[in-house]
Amino acid sequence: MSTAPDPEPRAPKPALVFDDPLDQQSSDDTDRGWGERSDTGGGAADLKRFLDEKPPHHL
Fold it and tell me: What is the pLDDT of residues 38-51, one digit of tens each?
């Protein structure tokens, strides 16, 4: 007779999916996040956005 404890059941492994990844819409396929501006914040938010998006050669 064995005195070792029974091994705990393992979680099932995720199934492999062989779908074509190009058939799915990615976040780049939408216009969300491309130049959208919130209407809140006023001048301080505009200045922060300007400083955040300024190219390095404009320092």
Answer: 666 678 888 888 88
